[in-house]
């Protein structure tokens, strides 16, 4: 996305009555990326329905095409991927443009790392500030060579040139940060590495890579030891078989509407087909602890993942101290949780959120500033926010100065929710980043309100 400020698309999100109705949020972003990547490595046709057609996933699709796969849209959310087979990715002829997407970058660096190809990774202003050292370290141990291009700012930032190792060396890697992207990068590199690649995960993170790699036929095992550490092994030189995948709705996208319905008086919303994988569902647990009415209806399995319809009703919320152990299962949901906290009775305390500082923006600093501008009482600490809520009264809103979103979709959507729960509205400086993960967000919000 361009950082041309004259092209920014500002919007003031205004209170517009209760939210009522039924919606279906788009497909899960993590599963959508992986469907295309693994489909591109299987020989034959993988069919995907419910794919998230957001800019981040389209960046993954374009990159897989550039490396030889045929990736085609056949209908709304329906895609067909003809893969080349593990080991057969082609040398891309131009830099791979990862746009705003950390997941595309880190997982594809893993794939390239064990193929005999060289790829240049570039991204937008936000992505070019994010740390890639966390994948460079294990992938270098596997033999890949990473060269910073001329404009690298140092410290493993994009643009980067990655030269794959062939054959790559299997490693056992203990994750120093709780990151599904780092775990997945090593496992994907392991797919084309002779022998067994091991990832040791002391703190569990989203497990879509493990589920889907197994589903595509890779030999992958997970053992959990007494202290909860997960030991994941994958046998390389795998042969993946094409799959038919129905992508469940994204809980991270549903979270904006869950919070909106909880905080706006008179609301009642049914959100259909939401992924409820335990490694993703922390937001529902915390909002229930705060007193939120969230009913799980019709629990079932979709695409190998637990799914339910969520019935959400306006509820008075109370502040809580969030257990840092739950953070990985709701890492992308904190911006909107902070909005819920700003409208709750009493104090909410969050800790253990240092990872939020290296997302699309520094989500602690940016949300502290944004909520303060909207009239909330927020204190920023090293690793979290402390928020004293209004006790259910709307935020004041009304500031002339717009909230700065810093190319971060989740800040824009969280502050849109704050706007509809305010007296005078919240001006967001740029709504364009929303299209990276949830292109239909504004239409859905407008459709439920008023
Ligand atoms: O693996 C994934 O699909 C993701 C992992 C998380 O990132 P980290 O691994 O950096 O925590 C999350 O924030 C991101 O939106 C998607
Ligand atoms: C952090 C996120 O995504 P990514 O890391 O893929 O940019 C997100 O979607 O909130």
Automatic annotation (TrEMBL):
Region Disordered, annotated ranges: 1-20
Domain Enolpyruvate transferase: 17-443
Signal peptide bounds: none
NCBIfam families xrefs: aroA
The organism's place on the tree of life at top rank: Bacteria
Function summary: Catalyzes the transfer of the enolpyruvyl moiety of phosphoenolpyruvate (PEP) to the 5-hydroxyl of shikimate-3-phosphate (S3P) to produce enolpyruvyl shikimate-3-phosphate and inorganic phosphate.
Family: Belongs to the EPSP synthase family.
Chief site of localization: cytoplasm
A GO BP annotation: amino acid biosynthetic process
Transcription regulation in keyword set: no
Pathway membership, UniProt: Metabolic intermediate biosynthesis; chorismate biosynthesis; chorismate from D-erythrose 4-phosphate and phosphoenolpyruvate: step 6/7
EC number: 2.5.1.19
Name under which the protein is recorded: 3-phosphoshikimate 1-carboxyvinyltransferase
This protein's encoding gene: aroA
Residue numbers binding 3-phosphoshikimate: 29-30, 34, 179, 181, 332, 359
Catalytic activity: 3-phosphoshikimate + phosphoenolpyruvate = 5-O-(1-carboxyvinyl)-3-phosphoshikimate + phosphate
Keywords, alphabetical: Amino-acid biosynthesis, Aromatic amino acid biosynthesis, Cytoplasm, Transferase
Complex formation: Monomer.
Enzyme class: transferase
Residues annotated as binding phosphoenolpyruvate: 29, 102, 130, 181, 363, 410
Organism of derivation: Novosphingobium colocasiae
């Amino acid at each position: 996305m361009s950082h041309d400020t004259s092209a920014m698309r500002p919007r003031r999100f205004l209170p517009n009555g209760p939210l009522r109705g039924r919606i279906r949020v788009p497909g899960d972003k993590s599963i959508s990326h992986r469907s295309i990547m693994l489909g591109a490595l299987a020989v034959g046709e993988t069919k995907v329905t419910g794919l998230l057609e957001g800019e981040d996933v389209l960046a993954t699709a374009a990159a897989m095409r550039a490396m030889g796969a045929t990736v085609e849209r056949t209908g709304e959310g329906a895609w067909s991927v003809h893969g080349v087979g593990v080991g057969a990715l082609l040398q891309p002829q131009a830099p791979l443009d990862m746009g705003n997407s950390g997941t595309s970058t880190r997982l594809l660096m893993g794939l390239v790392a064990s193929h005999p190809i060289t790829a240049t990774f570039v991204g937008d202003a936000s992505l070019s500030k994010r740390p890639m050292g966390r994948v460079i370290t294990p992938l270098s141990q596997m033999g890949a060579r990473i060269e910073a291009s001329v404009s690298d700012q140092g410290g493993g930032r994009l643009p980067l040139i990655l030269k794959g190792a062939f054959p790559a060396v299997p490693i056992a890697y203990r994750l120093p940060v709780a990151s599904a992207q780092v775990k997945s990068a090593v496992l994907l590199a392991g797919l084309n590495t002779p022998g067994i690649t091991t990832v040791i995960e002391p703190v569990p993170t989203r497990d879509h890579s493990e589920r889907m790699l197994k589903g595509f036929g890779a030999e992958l095992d997970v053992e959990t030891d007494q202290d909860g550490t997960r030991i994941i092994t994958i046998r390389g030189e795998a042969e993946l078989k094409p799959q038919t995948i129905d992508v469940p709705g994204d809980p991270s996208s549903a979270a904006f509407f869950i919070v909106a319905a909880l905080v706006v008086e008179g609301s009642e919303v049914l959100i259909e087909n939401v992924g409820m994988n335990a490694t993703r569902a922390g937001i529902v647990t915390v909002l229930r602890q705060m007193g939120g009415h969230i009913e799980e209806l019709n629990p079932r399995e979709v695409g190998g993942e637990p799914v339910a319809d969520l019935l959400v009703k306006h509820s008075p919320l109370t502040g809580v101290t969030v257990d840092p152990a739950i953070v990985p299962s709701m890492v992308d949901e904190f911006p909107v949780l902070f909005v819920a906290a700003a409208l709750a009775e009493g104090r909410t305390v969050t800790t253990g959120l240092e990872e939020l500082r290296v997302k699309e923006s520094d989500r602690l600093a940016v949300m502290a500033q944004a909520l303060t501008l909207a009239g909330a009482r927020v204190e920023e600490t090293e690793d979290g926010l402390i928020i004293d809520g209004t006790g259910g009264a709307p935020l004041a809103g009304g500031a002339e100065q717009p909230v700065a979103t810093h190319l971060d979709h989740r800040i824009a959507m969280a502050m849109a929710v704050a706007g509809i729960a305010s007296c005078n509205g919240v001006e967001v400086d740029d709504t364009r980043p929303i299209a990276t993960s949830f292109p239909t967000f504004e239409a859905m919000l407008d459709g439920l309100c008023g």
